[in-house]
Amino acid sequence: xxxxxxxxxxxxxxxxAFLRILIFGFWLLYIFIxxxxxxxxxxxxxxxxxxxxxxxxNEILSKILxxxxxxxxxxxxxxxxxxxxxxxxxNVTAKISCLLVFFHLALVKCFSHLQHAEMPxxxxxxxxxxxxxDDAFALLPSKRKKPASPGEYSMAxxxxxxxxxxxxxEVGVYRLLKSAQGIFLxxxxxxxxxxxxxxxxxxxxxxxxxxxxxxxxxTFLKIxxxxxTILEILAPVSLISRKFKYYFxxxxxxxxxxVFITMKINFGALSMLxxxxxxxDRWFQPKMAKLQESYIDHPSSRQHTS
Amino acid sequence: MNSKKxxxxxxxxxxxxxxxxxxxxxxxxxxxxxSHNVGPFSHSKPPSYYLSKxxxxxxxxxxLMFLIIVSFFLFAPAKINFRIIxxxxxxxxxxxxxxxxxxxxxxxxxxxxxxxxxxxVLLLIFVLFFANLKSLQxxxxxxxxxxxxxxxTVLILLLFAQISRQWDYTYPFVHFAMFTDRISSKELVYYExxxxxxxxxxxPINPTEVFPxxxxxxxxxxxxxxxxxxxxxxxxxxxREAAKKNLQxxxxxxxxxxxxxxxxxxxxxxxxYKRSFNLDxxxxxxxxxxxxxxxxxxxx
Lengths: 306, 300
Known about the structure:
- The complex is a heterodimer of chains A (306) and B (300).
- Chain A has helices at 13-32, 58-64, 67-86, 90-111, 119-130, 150-179, 182-185, 188-198, 207-213, 215-233, 242-263, 268-272, 280-283, 285-297, 299-305.
- Chain A is mainly alpha-helical and 306 residues long.
- The longest helix of chain A has 30 residues, at 150-179.
- In chain B, helix 1 packs antiparallel against helix 2, helix 3 runs antiparallel to helix 4 (113-131) and helix 3 crosses helix 6.
- Chain B contains ten helices and four strands, in the order H-H-H-H-H-H-H-E-E-H-H-H-E-E.
- In chain B, strand 1 and strand 2 form a beta hairpin.
- Chain B folds into three domains: 1-83; 85-181, no CATH class; 187-297, no CATH class.
- The interface between A and B is large, with 82 and 77 residues.
């Protein structure tokens, strides 16, 4: 019997630092183009508190929903994310950034619905904040007493992959249990495609009319739907099979692009995370060998081994 | 054939016979009995009633048997040597104990027992599979205890949120469900917004453009929800009045912010139009109905 092993067990501090720049860079852009202070214009009566907001009194809530407070909060978030991204004491700044981004997303959620695609990048940022992601590409690295064991970087990236595949797995399994087989046989997918392509005024590529006039196009979506569900359920396999991992990334990326074009649902944040599924450790391989040498040579590790 | 293979063989045969009986033989048998007035069936109920009852019963029973088999694999005494993928019994017992605790605490809010139970078992299999990989165990042990606690906590919260669906409390750990609700209605309804200039003329208003902080259809969905409640015939009067007031104030906010961003040409009113069409009759009648359903006026 073939022994099952993981495909991502050699990762370097550079790979983790690269992810830190990428993920916090994404959140920087997200917060920068997101004028959260505008929320102060909305009526407080449509604010439906979740999470810790449930614990706050109306007085505190009205202070939080003040234009000036939200404006200052947004810029504070931008500054902390910039620091975390640049690697300025990231062990502190990245954690604060995560808290601020969490607060930002929770606040937006209180005014509307949840965007599932935004959750995994937040989880990834949390992992990067907890693990040592500033051991490379950092302006002012955090001061630590002990060097990291090379396994720590691999564990961080593996854990990120576990979280991402776990969320895909959850989506696929839930769909299968709740709505199979009906959802794959009826016109739900066609109706979504038409509905989502029609209802926005911001940009309309006319796909709704195409779907209505040429049923073959929506049949293509209908056939692809169970295939994507199976891929979602099999997402964890990408941790143990390099070949499957590439198929998974290719087809899921294709699916997200199709959904974006046809339904205008943006999974950009989620698609960005596919870079983790590529072997980013290989880009930094020579540097990793050096680090392993320095780990062996480090006095504290020698003490530990003796 | 050794005893392990024998048990597996009989389990497989048993499962096959059960599936054959439950899903292939029984449904036509029930239908045959109903059409020939045989058996304990009341004729006031349609055949679909009995078929769906049988289908629910057989699925529940299948799931129960599946649970018993999984438990056997997990808790079989060590000397039987029947734990197929699990090589660390101590870890697995902890995982199962935590899983039982999560399922027990998450259940009050879960609602759908069958799908929740099935989902929780599948999630448990996911966790057990990775927890039993030697290479992952080695890496897990390499990191410090604080980080290990962090990873376990994240996984527990993800599991809890998915099973309980009470993610209002576990946010940002949420219940992941996308493209799961079936759509049976063929009547598609969406809303459009138009601003009326104070001097003359009108302009289409895209709420997302006015409130980019609520992009990804957040503001649009909020407005749709409020409109649906306001114009609902089944909702209570109190709920409809509250939704109407919120809809009015939200549209006013959109107008005010629009005016703040467009200082040269202000709008003095916002019209909300309902657009609707039937999916089936669209080919013969490709017109989308448009009717004014709500209006707000903005003071200068």
